[in-house]
């Protein structure tokens, strides 16, 4: 895609990681964008020179990945990027109740994400994994109760936190494929989200590169790719 003044630029590693929800939201909103993907080297060095060579040359207030450039606006922090895009399309909630639910979910789901991140960083992964799986149903039950009979996590209106929540639940589903089986409303939420035409088309376009992460009992991409590379940005 050739860049124009109206084309956003999303910068991130050439992986799924923290940019997956952002990419899905950009696709869903028909936003004109191009990507700058940085490649991280293989183990054990994980050469990050592609990013480090330009990190402090992009005029970012807090140089980091992911970043979004939209004309004069330059944004880092993945959730700040999601909110920026969502505001342009009225996807942050309408009523005060919806906005409160969005604020809660935005932060709660990131806390949940970080539990899996810390586990996958750990050198004691196999030792700690049973403990994570033991507490996982309790965590998911909270999200299930919060969603209740609503279609989306803010209520009946689709907001950016649904993109974020889908991504995190999907990572856990890949980590433990049966983890959502006890929660019909969470499974229905996942199916409902995946059935959105633009999301379905985007997921299909990705093929196996980003859709398949699990090998045996642990996501190989999470364990050795996405999270470790993102940690060393």
TrEMBL record:
One GO BP annotation of this record: glutathione metabolic process
Taxonomic lineage of the native organism: Eukaryota, Metazoa, Chordata, Craniata, Vertebrata
Residues of the GST C-terminal domain: 95-217
Protein name per Swiss-Prot or TrEMBL: Glutathione S-transferase
Key words of the record: Cytoplasm, Transferase
A GO cellular component annotation in the UniProt record: cytoplasm
Species for this entry: Panthera tigris altaica (Siberian tiger)
Molecular-function GO term, any one: glutathione transferase activity
Catalytic activity as recorded in UniProt: RX + glutathione = an S-substituted glutathione + a halide anion + H(+)
Gene3D superfamilies in UniProt: 1.20.1050.10, Glutaredoxin
Annotated GST N-terminal domain residues: 6-93
Similarity comment text for this entry: Belongs to the GST superfamily. Mu family.
Compartments, record wording: Cytoplasm
Pfam families (alphabetical): GST_C, GST_N
EC id: 2.5.1.18
InterPro entries on file: Glutathione-S-Trfase_C-like (IPR010987), Glutathione-S-Trfase_C_sf (IPR036282), Glutathione_S-Trfase (IPR040079), Glutathione_S-Trfase_N (IPR004045), GST_C (IPR004046), GST_mu (IPR003081), GST_superfamily (IPR050213), Thioredoxin-like_sf (IPR036249)
């Amino acid at each position: 895609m050739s860049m124009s003044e109206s084309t956003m630029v999303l910068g991130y590693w050439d992986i799924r990681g923290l940019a997956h929800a952002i990419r899905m939201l950009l696709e869903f909103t028909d936003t004109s964008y191009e990507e700058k993907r940085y490649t991280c080297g293989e183990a054990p060095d994980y050469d990050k020179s592609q990013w480090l060579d330009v990190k402090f040359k992009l005029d970012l207030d807090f140089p980091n990945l992911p970043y979004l450039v939209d004309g004069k606006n330059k944004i880092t922090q993945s959730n700040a990027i999601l909110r920026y895009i969502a505001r342009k399309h009225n996807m942050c909630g309408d009523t005060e109740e919806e906005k409160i639910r969005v604020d809660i979910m935005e932060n709660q789901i990131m806390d949940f994400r970080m539990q899996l991140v810390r586990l996958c960083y750990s050198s004691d992964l196999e030792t700690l994994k049973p403990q994570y799986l033991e507490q996982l149903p309790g965590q998911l039950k909270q999200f299930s109760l919060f969603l209740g009979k609503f279609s989306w996590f803010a209520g009946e209106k689709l907001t950016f936190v649904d993109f974020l929540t889908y991504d995190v639940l999907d990572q856990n589903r890949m980590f433990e494929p049966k983890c959502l089986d006890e929660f019909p409303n969470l499974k229905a939420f996942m199916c409902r989200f995946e059935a959105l035409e633009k999301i379905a088309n985007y997921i299909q376009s990705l093929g196996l590169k980003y859709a398949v992460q699990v090998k045996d009992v642990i996501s190989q991409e999470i364990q050795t790719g996405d999270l470790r590379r993102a940690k060393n940005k």
